[in-house]
Amino acid sequence: MGDFRLLDRSAVAVLNEMTEQCRFNKGLFSWIGFRTETVEYTRPSRRAGSTKWRVSRLVALALDGITSSTTLPLRVWTVIGAIISVLALGYAAFLLAYTIISGVDTPGYASIMVAVLFLGGLNLFSLGLMGEYVGRIAVQVRGRPLYIVAEKVGF
To answer: What's the predicted TM-score (pTM) here?
Structure first.
């Protein structure tokens, strides 16, 4: 996929209205929602030199794309933290029942395991929840319009 695009004046006008400082243009081109067409072509091989895109720059570009277009990774950590906390509580109930029925195998094991698992899950959940707030702040600060009018008729 090449990075060449032909944009009409209305698409350029919408892109120029975006006030974002860190612009991930590939994401913005699809976000504005104008009709697109694809032109298939066979790209000739490079005649001289080599690519300047190293793996580290490609990873940075991917991270820019993820962080500029979605808050899903933040929500994932919230859910993972909640699941770990619930599983830790279930494990605590299991260890309590096992200790009552069978006795204590290793003193302190049950309490340390439950505390570590539950607090770790709670930390992940809290971090994800704070990330949700930061993600909403980021969306608000971008100042993107709620909708884009593609065409005015009769004005």
So the answer is: 0.59
